[in-house]
Amino acid sequence: MILHRLRGIPWLTAAVFVCGLVAALILTMAGWRSLMENRPGGVAFAEGVQNVELRAAWLEFFRAGWMRATWFLLPAAVLAALRLRGRWLIFPMAVASAHVAVYWIGTDLIENLHRSLNDPLGMEPSPSAYTAKLMLMATFALSPPVMLWLYYRSTLLDRYLMRNFLPPFALCLGGIIAIMISMDLLNNLTDYTAAGYGPGQIILYYVSQMPLILVGITEAALLLATLFSLGKMSRHNELTAMHSAGRSVLRVLLPLLVCGLWASLAVLAMNFQFAPDAVRIKEQTRAGLGGAARPLAVFNILYRNREGLRTWYLHSVPYDLRADNPISEVYVWQQNGGGDITQCWFARRALWLPESGVWQFQQVMEFTFADPATGKPLAHPRRTPLPFMEQKRWPETPGGMLSDKLDPDYLGVPGLLSALKSRASLPDKIIARYETVLQWRFALPLRCFLIVLLAAPLGIAASRRNVLGGVAAALGIFITVFFLSNLLLKSGEGAYLHPFIAAWSVNLVFAAAGIGLFWYRSRNRLAMSLNPLRWGRPGK
Questions:
Q1: Is the pLDDT of residue 12 over 70?
Q2: Residues 118, 363: Cα–Cα separation, whole Å
Q3: pTM for this entry
Q4: CA 20 to 30 Å from 524, out of 120, 382, 481, 486?
Q5: Which runs of consecutive H residues, i.e. helices, occur in 390-532?
Q6: What is the C-alpha to C-alpha distance for residues 90 and 250, in angstroms, rounded to an integer?
């Protein structure tokens, strides 16, 4: 009764939405004035990007404003879900998607824009890759209303096909995720408890692992859902009826191909940066279960600058280098032209500032073995403790010392491109590994579309026996290609194959097999049997 009365009130959802939006804007403007009251002249954009304290204040203000707007717009979202149906849901979903996109991109800009302009490790930055990452994030976040619009713009037969495909796909995706998380939780729950992890921390950890999990299981979920839905429709002769209505095989399966493209977009958005970040979080969490948690880092780096006559030893350099996560235990030895040590510095912590190229050392012990003016050795070396020291003359950067030691599995596309820009100092095998992983970041998402291209013709069958044969063939091809892809990737990382061939050859096999199967199905012909004993028989 209450729901019926709510649906009878005209413009109720729009009125609640406008009121919530106005209230959120008023409070947001008040918060912005409070934030800027100590800066009456405003803040330059470059200053805000490079200033750590100002970025932290902006980030806190942005998150608080977004959460406030979420609570004010939530009643309108609930009313839209209760009152609206069909095409009327497109606009509320577009607003919700834009709301998520603004938060996602806004927080990323505040946190990482300065990194895209000045790499914290000192490697050459890749602003174009960071821009592509933002565009992928925006496209993926704004894609749900577009997909919903396409759904309601499609024909009745297309919608019927999607209603048969989407529930199995969601069930497969959710089921595989639940199984993976349950198994991991059963194996590590004791370690989580011993490390002091509460339920909230455990939930946040698995949320952070979602990009990595989805990248790995989306192909399997698409394969199973496509085969199940099309096999079910084949058993009831529904696909035959669609074909009899004048639709070609390609036109019948077009909605599934569109879903495959959307899945490729989603996996590309996650595999571009978020899945590698999830790998780093996973390794860091696993390392912290046995003791104190520490950021993922590269350990025991020894570096020699022959031109500057300096030798460096860095105990640990974190991948996420920043002011609150510095380099630990740095040793620097300075020599003269004769090879004698003139000075050395032992520092507990160090940080390299990408904006100015300055090294900052904390808790330093300086040893002087030669007179700086004359260069003659001292009878008694001087030992000077320094709480803080800056060095502007040293051109070494953390990235230059780590260029061949970074693990590409922990780097997204921007990091891989930055590492490859310093390829002059890299050995061939390291270059091959970076280039292979970079190509794989783009090749893997496309397989989501290609798996649908391959599985859809196999799912169309005229009998129960053919359905089982199509399922067996698709699973066999999937397992074989999965094995081959890992073999080829390792060959590419070892410089035995060209990186492009190692990453994309599996996709070419998928594409050729899918197009060939489509051609056979479009002519109502059975594809060649995979059993060699049946080759050459008439009609087989």
A1: yes
A2: 26
A3: 0.85
A4: 481
A5: 398-402, 413-420, 428-459, 464-493, 499-522
A6: 27
